[in-house]
């Protein structure tokens, strides 16, 4: 049997029977190598699996995960909510806007959509329920808003992209994601406001606006985290990997010394939880590396890329087909896995049409962000629905409007690449 067919069928079959994504990737790679190449080639599985994670920049991933958990559990989100309320003020849809703003800032600390969704949903859904928002609507808003974490630096998915694409400058990628991330946040706010006013959501919102200056003062330690990360990168004071270590250290200072919300038990628990999360991601990366090596060695990715290129000579048509493929993948897989599985196929296509790889990486991230809150799987929506105690099916009438709105934002970024590229160019980064 052809090794490429074995690779595809075994991967899809394992997913269908409920195998974890890492297991499916690894076993499919081993089966393809053993059948498509030679049983003797299986001896190279260990070295290729290790080589996938033996990369210095990957150290940033567990450190940024730790940073996100520190800020999540040190009371940062609560202070950000108060600050956002003081800015937005009492209005129809006000708390929904607050939830989106907090998600945007929290995304600049965690780099993970599900972590962002969990932190904000825990605080906001109860308050939104009291204010008159249906739990399913609240879950939809927060899930959609938290998806911007894959765009706002320090996005873990963008770190993976920078490692897999030769010559990619992570600083340029981080800068390129900022304005599309803000545009995505605006794409959530607009339908949220319209729906809230038409359905009279938030009728019981408090009419008392928190004082701005005390709220800002209390939130400054949290707001400084993105400033330290991006400022340090821009000044050249530290590399992206060093920025992750600095951010984690600063998070502990904020949680232990400033907000005083972290005790020894809390520190132990978040170290354990971040280690578990990091281990899962690293296992996925290592076994996806095996899958990628098998597909590349067997020539499957080249053949698939050639098949896509044969569909049309028009770069725009091919790009829209790629975006549709990524959207479907985003509904069932996490962002990191999508990058790991599809990039060996997509980079040759991007090179053929001379697409800017920084712009293309952000397009991928924005597309995957939409998938994170698009049923049936929708990892962010799974988190917020669980917190809100509603079935995912109940969110569909609300979340579909946010999916459509963010799709329009994605089309704007496709049509106007300068939305992505002007900031890294202004900062002098190589794109």
TrEMBL record:
GO terms for cellular component: plasma membrane. The keyword Transmembrane helix applies. It is found in: Cell inner membrane. One of its GO terms (molecular function) is transmembrane transporter activity. Residues 9-419 form the TRAP C4-dicarboxylate transport system permease DctM subunit domain. Signal peptide: none annotated. It is a multi-pass membrane protein. InterPro entries: DctM (IPR010656), TRAP_DctM (IPR004681). It comes from the Bacteria. The chain crosses the membrane at residues 50-71, 92-109, 139-164, 170-195, 216-237, 243-259, 280-311, 317-347, 359-378, 398-423. Pfam families: DctM (PF06808). Keywords: Cell inner membrane, Cell membrane, Membrane, Transmembrane, Transmembrane helix, Transport. Belongs to the TRAP transporter large permease family. The complex comprises the extracytoplasmic solute receptor protein and the two transmembrane proteins. Part of the tripartite ATP-independent periplasmic (TRAP) transport system. PANTHER family: C4-DICARBOXYLATE TRAP TRANSPORTER LARGE PERMEASE PROTEIN DCTM, SIALIC ACID TRAP TRANSPORTER PERMEASE PROTEIN SIAT-RELATED. This is TRAP transporter large permease protein.
